[in-house]
User: What shape does this take?
Amino acid sequence: MLKFFHRMASPKYFYQFAGKLIPWLGVACLGFLLVGLYDGLVLAPTDYQQGDSYRIMFVHVPAAWMSMFIYIVMAGAGAIGLIWHIKLAEVIAISSAHIGASFTFLALVTGSIWGKPMWGAWWVWDARLTSELILLFLYLGVIALYNAVEDKRAAARATSILALVGVVNIPIIHYSVEWWNTLHQGPTVTKFGAPSITIDMLIPLLLMAVAFKLFYATVVLMRARCEILQRERNSGWVRELVRASQ
Amino acid sequence: MNEFFHMGGYAFYVWTSYGLALLVLLANVLSPILLKKKLLSQLARREQRAGRS
Assistant: This one.
């Protein structure tokens, strides 16, 4: 097992292994996505208060969960890169930043579109919305900082520190609806005790959440492969790969 | 079927959200594919130059 991890940390093996894994993850993601969409848009009952507008939840909530999950993965990988100088961890961290930023954007925009008919406003400066917006800025800061530094190993060190400092925002986002009096509703799934959501709505929500997780796994590996190609472009195995593909 | 697309009067909000989600997912899939293509062709050109000299 340890040998496996040791080999995986080598960019060459990771590149090959990820290449084999990506199609399987992609197919699994598509399966969950299609079932989740059908379940969420067709089978799930109409909400007694919000009508059909609540169906935005099936993309909004998984996107918001992913925005936080990916941030933790990014900061964790960044920390591993900082401590043990593992190149692969740096690659995963920066590859996650782009995807995390896009999910944060999606969570904010779909939230806004949901807010308009339900709250009567596209945007309010409520604690949940503001802290999620800060998360988007943290992601963009990480990407900008990484691109600004020419030496990619130095860039990875700097961005990892920024990402780690930003972790403080994650519990703030999660608990914002409890600590402050927000317009945003409280948690209905991620809380102690039984979820206060009907099972017919919970199942599609969880299916979509799994689909989004698998999606992240798929595209982070795709991005990581590009990043490895770029970083290892002078190494023997990449040059061989390029010659073979010609 | 019509009722399905109508979404109880919230069609605009619901379908805009799902459309945007689709766009974000597609962008995330396409960008690494295009980037890989670009990188490989860049590296291939470099190999050709190295081969000639």
